[in-house]
Amino acid sequence: MRHLKSGRKLGRTHSHRKATLSALSVSLIQHKRIRTTTAKAKEARMVVEKLITRAKRAVLREGDGKIKDVHARREAFAFLRDRTAVTSLFNDIVPKVTSRPGGYTRVVKLGQRRGDGAQVAVLELVDYNTGQEKQTSKAAEKEKKGKAPRKKQAKGTKSAKEVAAQTPPIAEKAAAGKKAGQE
Predict the structure, then answer these.
(1) Residue 37 in contact with residue 6, Cβ under 8 Å?
(2) Residue ranges of E strands in the chain
(3) 149-179: burial string, b at 16+ Cβ within 10 Å, e else
């Protein structure tokens, strides 16, 4: 029985699971948004939330003084194993989330993956959802203009303009048929 045993095993040993969560955390910190399975996203969310909270508390302890909390940076590095990710965490992410009391990440479910049917989700930092703003603003601009979004054309198919350019108009076909009948 698994009473009081929290967390998902993800079909991995402890060391492999730890390395997977570390890699997912580094990717999330660097790219601000990752696409993975729902189970991995939910596990990585717990890890990243704790990392951000630790970093936030360390930055608040530092205050206005020039002395950095090296111990907190070393603790983050011990898990992440990536200097750029630690730097980005302390210098870029923490200043943006200082006013937020928690809930730094969100998991958005996308559906099933075509290959194996696994449930896929996007794990993203809440304060960095710039992609959604751009998409919604483009859609709003098109609605203002009264234009519907164009459908993507499949490869190997021709557009209506290309077909019309290659085929002669009906009047020309009829004239050509009359000439052939007269001769």
Answers:
(1) no
(2) 33-37, 105-112, 119-125
(3) eeeeeeeeeeeeeeeeeeeeeeeeeeeeeee
Contact between residue 93 and residue 52 where contact means Cβ atoms under 8 Å apart: yes
Assess if residue 6 is contained within a domain.
Answer: no
pLDDT band at 175 (very low <50, low <70, confident <90, very high): low
SS3 at position 107: strand
User: What is the number of other CB atoms lying within 10 angstroms of the CB of residue 13?
Assistant: 10
Is residue 7 in some structural domain?
Answer: no
**Does 119 fall in a domain?**
yes
Render pLDDT for 63-80 as a digit per residue (tens, 0 to 9).
Answer: 877 789 999 999 999 999
**3-state secondary structure at position 174:** helix
pLDDT digits (tens, 9 = 90+) for 148-171: 555 565 666 666 556 556 655 555
